[in-house]
Amino acid sequence: MPRFHTFLFDLDGTLIDHFTAIHRCYAHTLPQLGLPAPTPAAVRAAVGGGLENAMRRFVPESRLAEAVAIYRAYWHDHLLEGVEAMPGAADLLTQLAADGAKLGVLTNKLGESARLICGHLGWGACFAAIVGAGDTPWLKPEAALTHHALAQLGAGPDAAVLVGDSPYDVDAAHHGGIPAWTVSTGTHDAEQLRAAGAEAVFPSLAALRAALG
Q1: 6-17+84-212 has which CATH code?
Q2: CA-CA distance, 118 to 210, in Å (whole number)?
Q3: pLDDT tier at 48 (50, 70, 90 boundaries)?
Q4: What SS3 class is residue 72?
Q5: Alpha-carbon span 62 to 85, nearest angstrom
Q6: Which overall architecture, per CATH, does domain 19-78 show?
Q7: Is the pLDDT of residue 113 over 80?
Q8: Helix or strand or coil: residue 107?
Q9: Taking 80 as the threshold, does the pLDDT of residue 2 lie above it?
Q10: Is 163 within 8 Å of 133 (Cβ atoms)?
Q11: CA gyration radius, the chain
């Protein structure tokens, strides 16, 4: 297997399970606009491209700003309720840090939220950079965001990999000139991830860790 020295990690569906909290925020927001609360499956299918893009699945463009404002106010007060580390996440991060790898987070979740969550889970010291929505003008899968995250780590694309769970992550990796390793623990199954062009697909973080040797 390739020997990587720099790892960029997605958060939702990759390192953390936050879908209960995310769904709760949609279920809070949409009824206030006179719309039905979405199912968990509908929310899971919508997320990945940033809040505004996901919210467009549920509200007309004319009410997007209102919906986002309601969501974010509620999210700010409840974002740490129900967040859980994916099985194997802590062991993987501990091993990589011990091996001297450069670790970063690259997410379309708000950067402020991502940093709070990583701190809450005790991972703050693991990551030399945590980059999310609002930290730059870009979102995944824009190449500029991947390049920015690598620069924050003082790393180039050589011996770097992006670990994620969605085609957004695959595209973000490839647009930035690095391979994508994926786990089928989030929004997309193994077949969808292979079709998106992921160089490797694993059923879990434990399986990914085993592949690193």
Answers
A1: 3.40.50.1000
A2: 23
A3: confident
A4: helix
A5: 36
A6: Orthogonal Bundle (1.10)
A7: yes
A8: strand
A9: no
A10: no
A11: 17
SS3 content of the chain, % helix, strand, coil (to 5): 45, 15, 35
For the stretch 130-166, pLDDT in tens is: 999 999 999 999 999 999 999 999 999 999 999 999 9
| Residue-level pLDDT at 1 | 59
pLDDT of residue 50: 87
Calculate the average pLDDT of the chain: 95
What is the number of H-type helices and E-type strands within the chain? Answer: 10, 8
Q: Which two tokens stand for residue 88?
A: 């194997």
Q: Which residues are registered as beta bridge partners of 6?
A: 102, 160
- Residue 213 binned pLDDT confidence (cut-offs 50, 70, 90): confident
159 residue type, one letter = A
**Nearest CA among 147, 190, 140 for reference residue 165:** 190
Residues 6 or more apart whose CB falls under 8 angstroms from that of 91 comprise 205, 206, 209
Domain ranges of the chain: 6-17+84-212, 19-78
Cβ–Cβ under 8 Å, residues 126 and 93: yes
Distance of alpha carbon 21 from alpha carbon 81, whole angstroms: 7
What CA–CA distance (Å, rounded) separates 205 from 37? 32
What residues contact residue 37 under an 8 Å CB cut-off, 6+ apart? 26, 27, 30, 31
